[in-house]
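seq as requested:
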Amino acid sequence: MSSLPPSALASLDDSLALPFASVDELRAAKSIDVPEIIEQLETAAESAQALRVLVSAELPEASWQNREELEALLEEIRKRAQPSSSAHPHFPVSTLETALEPEAVVQTGSTLPAVEYSAHTSGELVGTNPLFYGNTFTNVSMVPLRPEPDSFQSGQSRVTGWITAIGALIAALAVVCFGISFERQMGKLRTQLTQSSEARTQMLQDEMRTDQRAWVGLTEATVRPLTANGGGFTIKLQNTGKTPALDLQVADVATIEDIDQSGPLQEPNVTAAAGNLMPGAIYTTDVWFTTSPDAVAGLTRDRLRAANYVYITYKDVFQKPHATKACFYWRKSLPRVKPCDRYNELN
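struct tokens:
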């Protein structure tokens, strides 16, 4: 029985080292070359298939489920391949001096003629063979042995041949089935790696755009003094992002409402174009409202409040649209404006 080459298992381990390294890079959120990983896995599959064929050739009925069982089979093959350590048996030989007489001649033929010789022994041996007592044999004829056909050995050889052929067929079928199963698994793995890579790339792209985009919001609002028929606010909008806000549009509406009102009675619909707002830049504007003398009196006596609703739209440098809603209110008892409970959104 031949032993497996030591490089068979080492080749499989070496071919798996690179895919494992790529998996570690993927766990660390590093970019990977998907086609290269697929090629590495195909190389590992070829090494695994070659090792399986070698094991099946040595142990046709062998099967395993994990690496430990495979290594146990390889150890069994190595033990079978080692030469036997037991030495050939030694038989004691008595001291025997035999001298052929010069006249002894062996003639060719189907039977050998008698060979006359004198045999001398040292010591006494128990037995009935005349040779052990120093007697001389004459006219000893030896008939050559003729091998006879052994029907049992012939039948055994045929059975062994059939078993070998069946084992080879089973091994070939196992290799084919393994190849089909592995190809299906490789297809699923390719799909998973592609989907994972695409999802990871999209996620990284979204994170980068979120980090670099423009963010426009209301940063300050100041109350203007009341007049007999109204009042107003000064508002400041700022781009706190890292890139410009493009095509900035501002819509604003100021209303006089009850103190406990929770939302606007109407959405801002009068839009003013503010252009582009660079990172860190501030856009300032005044918002005025006109109302009745009774409403002004209600504000002065702290029975009503003046609320301001701002609706801002713009695009970032990636051409994605965004909108910001802001609301604040003021009444006589407040030293400064306060944000509303609702209508404050940023995206």
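The first strand starts at residue 96 and ends at 100.
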